[in-house]
Amino acid sequence: MTIDDIATKFGVSRRTAERMRTSVVNLYPDVTCRIGPDGRKIWMRPPARRLGADEILALEWAIDHAAREHRDTQARVLSALLLRFEGRGSEEEGESPIRGTAPPPL
Known about the structure:
Layout: H1 3-10, H2 14-27, E1 32-35, E2 41-44, H3 53-68, H4 72-85
C-alpha cells in the first residue's frame, strides 16, 4: 500500500497518511517496504503463517494446563490466540483477549 493509497482510502492528507504508515510500522515490525514498478514505495505485511500440528498441540496443552491450574486469564488469552491462528477469531470481532475490552481502533 502506498502513501497515496492510504490517503485516498482514509480521506486524509499526505502528511496524515505518513503518520498512519509510521504508526502501523511501529505496531507491526514485519512490515516491509519495496519500490513498485512506478518508483513509489509500497508497504506490506507478509501473509499470515499457519500453525503446524505440533504447535497447535502445544497451544492446546497450554490451554488445558492453564485451565487446570485455574489460570483463567491465561487460558482465555491462549484460546483466543489459537482461534486467531486458525482463522476463526480476531480482536476485531469482539473482546480483546488481553484486556477483556474491545480493542482501540487504529
